[in-house]
Amino acid sequence: ARKNLSIAELSVPGSRFPLEGASDADIGANAQLSYTLSPSEHFSLDLHRSEEYRESLFLVLTKSLDRETIPVHRLVLTASDGGRPSLTGTMELVISVVDANDNAPQFNQSVYKVQLPESAAVGTLVARVTASDPDLGSNSEVTFSVSNIFPENGMNIFLLNSRTGEINLLGTVDYEDIRSYEIQIEATDKGTPSLSGHCKVVLEVLDVNDNAPEVWVTSLSVPVSEDASVGTVVAVLSVSDRDSGANGRVRCWVWPAVPFGLEATFAGSYSLVLREALDRERVSEYEVEVRAEDGGAPALRGSRGLRVPVSDVNDNAPAFAQAVYTVLARENNAAGAELARLWARDPDEAGNGRVSYSVWEGGVGVGVGGGSASWSGWRAASSYVSFEVRAVDAGEPALCGNATVQLFVLDENDNAPALLPAAGSAPEAGAVAAEASSLSSEPGSEPGSVSGTQWAWAAWGAPAGQVVAKIRAVDADSGYNAWLRYELWEPRGKGPFRVGLYSGEVSTARPLDEADGPRHRLLIVVRDHGEPARSATATLSVSLFEAAEAALAAGSSSSSSGSRSSVGVEVGGGAGSAATNVWLVVAICAVSSVFLLALVLYGASRWAPRAAVLSGPGPTTLVCASEVGSWSYSQRHSRSLCVADGAAKSDLMVFSPNFPPPPPGAAAKDTQPEPSSLLDT
């Protein structure tokens, strides 16, 4: 992390600047933070702790700042917690010193001495004064003005340029009239308040000779290669003066003094030679002036300007703006798609600066076109997590630069939830066969068709909140794309069952009773949180039994759980008392059987001479108590009692119990309880 601060240059020591403290999600000693600052002679830290308020962190100025010495201070703030081991966090403080007008303009010379021949023409540059101000902005902008001139008539002879500091000849000078001038010049900056510096220009008027030296270029070898060695001859010049004697003796020099110089070869001939190494990327062309001055009194000068271009050599390798690039790319993008665009700068020109790119891995380069990180060929995806891009110029010999690309793949919601095979059922749980289909849909859309059904059993009288089944699903995506929620799609409204939004548990919404019916079909939709959302659906068929029958069904189902998928179904708190009810029903049926047998024997003994027969259209259907202790009348049949000498009577009625249909694949012995006999006349 980085924080930028701006502090005035004139801030006094002891000034405090608030900093934002760090935060730690831990508690207690693990959240107690301490701070340290990288060594600095100008700054320190001050931490205030209070039980009433949040701790305050300040940056304290310990030594006066000087922007002209250090314009930017870079410090590292480290926060450490009190845990074991201690964890730390760092933040870079970049402190920019805001300039103050605390420096007056300074001339490079306190006294400028100038000699001017009396034959100088109007407009001649007499002198150039320069002043510098190390401040910034308007504080460093300098203007020049003449504060005083002696003699006073010089005010009409010399003109000072307030911006450049050049003093030009506005009129004519006469050696015989005035031999020297003194000009007081003031340099003032534009700060508030403004500061000023002063210098003096002493101008000496020289007697003239009437012929100035002349400079001619006789040979010029340009452009000059930037790798040319020191001493290379660039041009040959001839210098002459038509005067004689001292007025004809000429001296020459070059301006600026670097990187070229003049060497005299023979009388009147000079060579312009290289004195320092060249760098085309820093200066691609030089404007050189060769100046000549005779020995007259006053001396006359002549000059010749030369344009010297510098030719390029391949002395710069391509350089990337960053050593490491981080690229984020979504999954499922098309082959050949552009992942990133890298650019390397080569300051050379022409072929030396023309850069080609390649992916470099294991000593084998793969071409990259147009600066885009795209390549041909198929390799394992893991090889693209981090790779190196090489930039090579077209120079001779070729130079290259490298950069590392780190690729991070972002997840897309391209996987629908998948229903898992259920865990093995507990001994007291019912078996559930699980099949479902997956689809992609928008939130709120109709679920897709279901390819299979899950089965579960529950007991009448089960309390609210009892878990009947659990839907289990996973999503191969990550983040929100893999966060699943479960919805009961059908039946809608206030049904007897509900589904946990994020657990997938199917539980009773209220106590179950006979009015709820023997069977319920639930359509459950599993959705993720992606955009667009994807979902899977499953159908759960819940059969309702007496608690004892549900336990028997669960036991028979668990015995065959090895051949099919199953989930646990919680039976409820009444399972213990249900076994007692079973024995009670068996006892009642046994007593009823004895009573029936007695009635048959009694009737046989009474009507034996009449040879009565008991007949009917089919075998008599026995009657037993239902799961809730009441008679079942849904499959009622009448049977006829026939005697030899009388009409048939419908005195004997036998009832068949109304058992719910068995689940698919369940054996008859698993679903039909042992019947008991009871005769109602």
UniProtKB/TrEMBL annotation:
Gene3D superfamilies: Cadherins. It holds the Pfam family Cadherin. The chain crosses the membrane at residues 582-602. Keywords: Calcium, Cell adhesion, Cell membrane, Glycoprotein, Membrane, Repeat, Signal, Transmembrane, Transmembrane helix. Residues 656-681 are annotated as: Disordered. It is found in: Cell membrane. GO terms for biological process: homophilic cell adhesion via plasma membrane adhesion molecules. It is a single-pass type I membrane protein. Coiled coil: none annotated. SUPFAM superfamilies: Cadherin-like. It comes from the Eukaryota. One of its GO terms (molecular function) is calcium ion binding. GO terms for cellular component: plasma membrane. Residues 6-107, 108-215, 216-320, 321-419, 462-554 form the Cadherin domain. InterPro entries: Cadherin-like_dom, Cadherin-like_sf, Cadherin_CS, Protocadherin/Cadherin-CA. PANTHER family: CADHERIN-87A (PTHR24028), PROTOCADHERIN ALPHA-4 (PTHR24028:SF133). This is PCDA2 protein. The lineage of its organism: Eukaryota, Metazoa, Chordata, Craniata, Vertebrata.
